[in-house]
Amino acid sequence: MFFSEALWVNDLTATYKAEHKAVQLSVASRLGFAVPQTRVTNSPHPYMLGEKSHCVAIKGLDTVLLRADGYEIFGFTTFEFSDQLESDAWRSAPAIIQAALTNKLDIRVTVVGERVFAAAITVGGNPVSDDWRMHKSDAQFSAFELPPETVERCRALVRALGLIFGAIDLALCDGEYYFLEINPTGEWAWLVDSARLPIDEAIADCLSQEVSLDVF
């Protein structure tokens, strides 16, 4: 392989595999993370996650970025009631449907090797009930201390996926840390200034190592 002796952050093959959301959820659950009740389907049923009129979060199996008329269109997680999901449009492609966590605090965790950085996300000092990325321009990010066992789970998840770097979205709900997803190529630079997290230094230190980290 070209540059096979170099340290890759991240390995390309591992990155492609880790981007698969069903794989992420399976590995995270195996490592002890709480995971929202989940279905992957193209045939939604109003009772699939329990009671009718149950609020669910709808996500794509992969990240889709569309461009039209000079604009970029990004698909956020959307929230609906389960009895509103019956539609022939669903049959064109499967989606991830999860029990919605609305009474939660969003936490962005950035892992670089063994170093773990966490930031709590609020808007106007309050937690966000839907997808925080829809409010990113108004959001506040503050350094957050995770419990030691959650820190180690984050490290273990990144290692298990064959990665060195990973941006993990967690939700703190009723005292439980729920895994939502991990992005092996996730953005991080804004957290250096907004949450005073030295992620840039950690990445520079990682890349300057002469010996590759053993993540496999």
Folded structure, characterized:
The chain is α+β, with helices and mostly antiparallel strands. The protein folds into two domains: about 1-35 and about 100-215, D-amino Acid Aminotransferase, Chain A, domain 1 (2-Layer Sandwich); about 35-100, no CATH class. The protein contains five helices and eleven strands. It has a five-stranded antiparallel β-sheet. Strands 1-6-2-5 form a four-stranded antiparallel β-sheet, with no helix packed on it. A two-stranded antiparallel sheet has the order 3-4. The longest helix has 13 residues, at about 150-160. It is globular.
The arrangement of helices and strands along the chain is HHEEEEEEEEEHEEHH
CATH superfamily of the largest domain: ATP-grasp fold, B domain
Report the biggest beta sheet as strand number plus sense, adding barrel if it closes. 5 strands, antiparallel
CATH class of the largest domain: Alpha Beta
Structural class: alpha+beta
Brief synopsis:
The protein is an alpha+beta fold and 216 residues long. It has helices at 12-18, 21-30, 148-160, 189-194, 199-207; strands spanning 38-41, 55-59, 65-68, 71-74, 78-81, 95-99, 105-112, 115-123, 139-143, 165-173, 176-183.
Helix-strand layout with pairing:
Elements: H1 12-18, H2 21-30, E1 38-41, E2 55-59, E3 65-68, E4 71-74, E5 78-81, E6 95-99, E7 105-112, E8 115-123, E9 139-143, H3 148-160, E10 165-173, E11 176-183, H4 189-194, H5 199-207
Antiparallel strand pairs: 1-6, 2-5, 2-6, 3-4, 7-8, 7-10, 8-9, 10-11
